[in-house]
Design a protein that fits this description.
By secondary structure, the protein is mainly alpha-helical. 27% of the residues lie in helices and 0% in strands.
Length: 102
C-alpha cells in the first residue's frame, strides 16, 4: 500500500506568517520630519536617494511615501539639470572596455 502524503490542507506561500520580509514599513523620512516640499537645492539629502551608479532609488528601498517619492524624483531631475547632481557616477566599472588603457 502506498503512503498518503499531504493529506492535510496545503500551505500556501502567501499564508506564511513572519519571515525576513515581514514587519512594519519604516515611516517616510519627510513625513516624520513634517517636510512639506522636497528642495532641489538640498543636495546632501538628495544624494541619499541616488544609487552609486546615479540612478534614483525606488520607494521600496528608500522607504518614502508615494507623494514624497514623486517630489524626490522631480527634485533630483531638476538638480541634475542645474548641474548640482551628476547624471552618472564618475567611477564606472573597472572591467569596461572603454576604461582600459591601450
Amino acid at each position: 500500500m502506498a503512503k498518503a502524503r499531504g493529506r492535510g490542507k496545503p500551505v500556501r506561500r502567501r499564508d506564511k506568517k513572519g519571515g525576513p520580509g515581514s514587519g512594519r514599513r519604516k515611516p517616510c523620512q519627510h513625513c516624520r520630519d513634517k517636510i512639506d516640499q522636497v528642495d532641489y537645492k538640498d543636495v546632501a539629502s538628495l544624494r541619499k536617494f541616488i544609487s552609486e551608479k546615479g540612478k534614483i532609488r525606488s520607494r521600496r528601498i528608500t522607504g518614502s511615501c508615494r507623494r514624497h517619492q514623486v517630489q524626490i524624483a522631480r527634485a533630483v531631475k531638476r538638480a541634475r539639470e542645474l548641474a548640482l547632481l551628476p547624471y552618472v557616477n564618475e567611477g564606472g566599472r573597472e572591467d569596461s572596455p572603454r576604461g582600459r588603457p591601450r
